[in-house]
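Hi everyone,

Forwarding the result from last night's run.
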Amino acid sequence: MIEPTENAKDVRAGDALQVLPLSDQLDGEGLRGDESNNILQAMDAAIKVSNASAEIRAHAAEHYNRVSLGRSEHEPVLLKRRKQKKKERKQAKRIAHHSEKRVSFFHYSHYDIAFKYLIEQVFEAEWVKVPPRTKHSSDIGARYSSDYVCTPFKHILGDYIDALEAGANVLVTFPGPCRLGYYGELHESILRDLSYEFETLNFSTLRGVKGYIEGVHKINPKLDVPHVVPRLISVVKLIENLDEAYDFYMANAGFEVEKGSFQAAWRDYRETMMHVSSDAEITAAHTAGMKAFRSIPIDKPANPIRVGIVGELFTAIDQHSNLNTEDKLLAMGVELHRGITLTSRYLKYSEPNLRAGVGDYVTYDMGITSTLTISSAKRYAEEGFDGIVHIKSSGCTPEIDCVPVLQEIARDYHVSTLFLTFDSQTSDAGLDTRLEAFYDMLAMKKGKDIS
């Protein structure tokens, strides 16, 4: 510590004074004699204190905690202690409420992030990450499935086997909008025949609020409604944010100046979202991620080729199930929009409103996603989209029924439509050929150079 001189006792150590040389301030006639000498000494001392202010402040910070409207580098000791105690109480409560169950879901696009949050923050159990889906895991699922069952059944079964092999002891399935609602029991039966031991939480079998509470208590009996409800609201917010970010990605990634910049930003966004643990962290991560997306340079023409994607709830959304159809189209320089998401189908869905908009084409309910598929296709056609891609799994009855209606919309609005069906035997080569031909057709209609 630097000690101030005797003549500088009235100068405060924390004041950072900007003092000009004394010869520039006194012209020699304003003060004379001892009085002038005393002031000279005092001012010289003040200059020394000012030059040492950084060292003095550092020393003071070690002994005195100051607050300056959040700008101080140090918090008051009492505030730090309160925050630490609050954090410890929260951690102790989490440990007391934490379940020993090891829970897992199947892979489902970017919604794995929401599933993880649901298990860790709502159920307060351990989340078991399913290994990335591979052709081998899909083949395993297909091996133990009926040939005539829809493709999502095979993918999900393969994921469940991988999850159990990774150490999960509880598998969770949600009520499917179609035959998927019955698949939970079938999956369980097949897995038990394969000698796996586990518990299931099948929301398809639960009825009413009481049933859901009993089901959740299978994972963690210590949970209560005040704990669960706010965190469920955060799950909804997380899903909406994920869909908003991916919509932006699809609309702009095809026009990036630097190849791979959008994929890198999307990967960073997902990684950050994967580790959020509160509503505030969700907001902060989403805001930062969207800012990163918007900062990426793009070279987007005034009238780009626009393609709308419609189809089945699982295959149209899950990139592995549709062999990354969206990324293949983006690589060609296309602006993409997808009508089917968890947000559009569940969180912000109104069957009566959608049905009214497609009354010229639909009279009766054709299936759980049919109205949304037809409504989205009609909207894309009305907005002047260049093409529509319909994606479904093999054997999906509701989407098969949509095909004649989509063909009629295509004729009425003169919009090109590509129908894609996926099963466990679909190859990348065949898909690439069809997508390239579809893009060439759209580009020629738009008068673009495809050479």
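The CA atoms of residues 306 and 335 lie 5 Å apart.

Cheers,
N.
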